[in-house]
Amino acid sequence: MEILLNVSGIRKDFPVLEKKIHGKQLVYFDNAATTQKPIQVLEAVEQFYRTIYANVGRSVHELGLRATEAYEESRKIVSAFIGAMPDELVFTKQTTEAINLAAYSLLASGMISRGDLILTTRMEHHSNLLPWVRVAKLAGARLRIVNVDEEGRLDMGDFDKALAMRPRVVAVTHVSNVTGVVNPVKEICREAHSHGAVCLVDGAQSAPHMPIDVKEIDADFFAFSGHKMLGPMGIGGLYIRRELAEKLEPPFPGGGAISLVECQEDNCNAEWLHAPHKFEAGTPNVAGAVGLARAVEYLKTLGMGEVEEHEKMLTKRLLEVLEDLEVKIYGPLEVKDRLGVVSFNVEGLTPHEVASMLDLEGIAIRSGHHCALPLVKRLGAPMGTARASLYLYNTEEEIEYFARVLEKIKKIAKS
């Protein structure tokens, strides 16, 4: 079998993978929730705090200038990673804030108004559903939810019907955080534009695991989180197409976002800075940006194509062992249709019981609704699912161990 990544070498960069859990070697299969951090990222963040910690864009002293330089250099590195220009990347806390920023910017700019249609899908994480529910309510707009089939794939026929209603906004996930299904976002954005809509892609589960080029996708917005791609928590990004960004009003005004403020007795007027700075009011997470930049440099060195192929190889084996164990698998069984997120259930046990029993053997997975209640209910799993999610430091040996432990758990469930 072709070796795509030097996984044994990679694992040496992740100190936590040496940790024992309940006396057993840690097997970390909860990467869709958050990934572990390599020492290179930990050191980059520490170095910032130790040597150039200061606020950015506000001071002419040496530390302030060096911190600003590090922050803007991080923007260049991260934006290039997704195929964007630096002025098209807004740093946010995570995908949730990024999507809210997009939604409320459209609202503040009058680009969503009474009677307009917002189109999203039943497979969305709540973070790409609830902001649109709220904005639709505030604007007096309508919401249309596109259906999925029994395997969790987007119903493209229903999508076409919804597009015929000429939505103002189309918001769709790139990769499902429940089933790993990969949506044809390039086609979706093209069709959205042909019907006069702007298109937002939730890239939380795609940016960490596959090559991304926002220009090729032709998205108007692309949102992602740093903590799911080896970076720190509390940092993420929102790509905004340059032409659109200049038209948008920032929904969260404040210091650092303006070029001029003038006040009379009964009113104040502000002139905004150009994007991305007009969307980044207040003190940003500079250390997070530095850490995220180091994370994407690490990923770029490995090669995102190699990362994706490694995960597909592992996903194929994971699906095989789950099929052999005859547990309920949610989502398509063909690896070509999905990435390394696999939800399953064991008959006779709740998802939380399965996760707790695996934890006793050192295996970390997620259990529950995965912040995607409409989808898990559509899949026939009202109590949620157990979910194993893979990343670049996982191995086939870990999957074989996982299979042996799950087989024991199945026997306990039957006894």
CATH architecture of the largest domain: 3-Layer(aba) Sandwich
Structural shape? globular
Number of strands: 17
What count of structural domains?
Answer: 2
Under CATH, the homologous superfamily of the largest domain reads: Type I PLP-dependent aspartate aminotransferase-like (Major domain)
Number of helices: 14
Low-confidence stretches: none
User: How are the strands ordered across the major sheet?
Assistant: 4-10-9-8-7-5-6
Kindly report how far apart the N and C termini lie.
39 Å
Strand content: 15-25%
Instruction: Find the CATH topology of the largest domain.
Output: Aspartate Aminotransferase, domain 2
Our Rg estimate from Cα atoms comes to: 22 Å
The CATH class of the largest domain turns out to be Alpha Beta
Largest sheet: 7 strands, mixed
Helix content: 25-40%
- Please tell me the overall pLDDT: 96
Content-based structural category: alpha/beta
What does this protein structure show overall?
With 415 residues, this protein is of the alpha/beta class. The chain has two domains: 136 residues, Aspartate Aminotransferase, domain 1, CATH 3.90.1150.10; 260 residues, Aspartate Aminotransferase, domain 2, CATH 3.40.640. The protein has 14 helices and 17 strands. Helix 8 links the parallel strand 8 and strand 9. It is globular. It starts with 6 loop residues before the first helix and ends with a helix. 48% of the residues are buried.
